[in-house]
Amino acid sequence: MTDTVLNVSGVSKRFGGLQALSDVGIQIQRGQVYGLIGPNGAGKTTFFNVLTGLYTPDTGTFELAGKLYKPTAVHEVAKAGIARTFQNIRLFAEMTAVENVMVGRHVRTHSGLLGAIFRTSSFKSEEAAIAQRARELLDYVGIGRLADFKARTLSYGDQRRLEIARALATDPQLIALDEPAAGMNNTEKVLLRELIDKIRNDNRTILLIEHDVKLVMGLCDRVTVLDYGKQLVVGTPAEVQRNEKVIEAYLGTGGH
């Protein structure tokens, strides 16, 4: 199996008269936490949405674990092996935590619609296994005690953890986290960093979009900086932090 989990090149996307992305690429190795940062309007979210099937790119080549994939629909990208969370939490509010994770796990089920309708023995067996796996994942992210609570009753930080558990339930090749620290207090950010470290240490691969540059620089193995839809810099956190173009884009004459 290749050590390159995600290999994307030549991604461009235009919205009317706005060139949102121009020839952007990214390469992520297995077990890395890879950061994607940039000033507001840099194209981070557009790139993220293209990778995960929310937007159709104008150009680009997309390869996941050595196999080409087409980012044409979210569910197809999930089947290919990319799971994502959203900046604005998207949970099933009236479902329990364990039910939310089970929904994620159904991407990998085999019984199908007829099994669900007729409640076949194989369907019942698979559902029991899914429920057990969902509870294991809730334990893994630190909220196992909340398995039977409705999602809407969970704290903000715990809802973020629930989203990550649901993403993990799809057995992804790549977990794409969209602003996971947004709205968190300092204590919640520390716990989030510990969880992302834990996931990485289990040889999983993470793409992280995050406005909290301190969090990114403390977590990531490599970082891509976008500005005005173009790649500004790619490198280690140390290389990125001392790059004059990055300093200018964030602090200087970049107009942000």
TrEMBL record:
The ABC transporter domain, residue ranges: 6-253
Stored InterPro entries: AAA+_ATPase, ABC_AA/LPS_Transport, ABC_transporter-like_ATP-bd, ABC_transporter-like_CS, BCA_ABC_TP_C, P-loop_NTPase
CDD domains: ABC_Mj1267_LivG_branched
GO BP annotation list: D-alanine transmembrane transport; L-alanine transport; L-isoleucine import across plasma membrane; L-valine import across plasma membrane
GO annotation, cellular component aspect: plasma membrane
Molecular function per GO: ATP binding; ATP hydrolysis activity; L-isoleucine transmembrane transporter activity; L-phenylalanine transmembrane transporter activity; L-valine transmembrane transporter activity
Keyword terms: ATP-binding, Cell membrane, Membrane, Nucleotide-binding, Transport
Keyword presence, Membrane: yes
Signal peptide (residue range): none
Protein's name in the database: Putative branched chain amino acid ABC transporter
Organism this protein belongs to: Rhodoferax antarcticus ANT.BR
